[in-house]
Amino acid sequence: MNKWKKELSFILVLLLVIVLTACGSTSGETKSEQTGVSDEELTIGQINWAENIAVTNMWKAILEDKGYNVKLSALNMGPMMMALKGGALDASLEVWLPVQDSNYLEKFQDTVNFSESTWFDNAKVGLVVPTYLEEVNSVEDLNEHKELFNGDIIGFDPGSGTMEVTDKLIEDYNLEFELIPSSEPAMLSEIKKAVENEKPIVAPLWSPHWVFSKYDLKFLEDPQNTFGGVEKIHHATRHGFEKDYPEVSEWFKNWKMDDQQIGQLIDYVESAEDPLEGAKKWVEENQELIGEWVK
User: ω into residue 208 within 30 of 0, thus cis?
Assistant: First the structure.
């Protein structure tokens, strides 16, 4: 037993020395100054949404071209914010404001950097139905046609900002509906099956999204404006990121995309076997645009 304790003590001391040595090496230096770009690892959060997979892989391709080592970490929005707060994550590339992710802004504004710059300025969120449902055009029409939808709104990731706003929408309009959580792929699969069979379905969706180019869907009017009007998409970083990666921080702030650009990027990523390969192809074909960001 004494021998075991001595060995354990030695291991603990050794670990302490390693930790202190690592901490000591950071004095007054940024990561770039310590290691050089080629040895750096940036960790970017990725949410399982079509446009998020597209832009995270796009930035992985761009940054690795510049010599950075980029890791993508799959997380939902809540854990993503906690990881940024704790410093385990460097950046999250998709924060919808002023409405959809306002709860995360309120909760983490003192511990996470929410960029004032935006990369997409004409986003929209709301409930959608297929266009062949001519009698349903507003959220206010839903209760009247409750049986048509079996009282279900088909949702996606629980805890996402849009799902929370959808819960609020149900309260605001006194809807006799239940929001069914799942995942974005599962929700899109249900939309696909419904549209192919001309069946009714209602789901929360957002634009930009490739699904609107594939199926004829319409946003329901939202007279109380629960979902808000035009949304803008920001990025967020951990505290200290601008100091550690000033160059990358500036590139993120320069980043701007329009509907056509993000739509094409999503299409390239969705159609490729490997999302990164699809993103690389798009990056190769859009060097002039990327040069406006990375300068």
Answer: yes
The whole domain housing 102 covers: 39-122+231-293
For residue range 215-226, list pLDDT tens digits in order: 999 999 999 999
Separation of CA 96 from chain center:
9
178/34 Cα distance (integer angstroms): 53
Are 255 and 132 found together in one domain?
no
Does any domain span residue 79?
yes
- Smallest CA-to-CA distance from 215 within 151, 148, 132, 140 is with 132
Report which secondary-structure segment, H or E, holds 114. Answer: strand 112-130
Q: Domain total for the chain?
A: 2
pTM over 0.70: yes
Rounded Cα gap, residues 194 and 196, in angstroms: 6
pLDDT value of position 24: 38
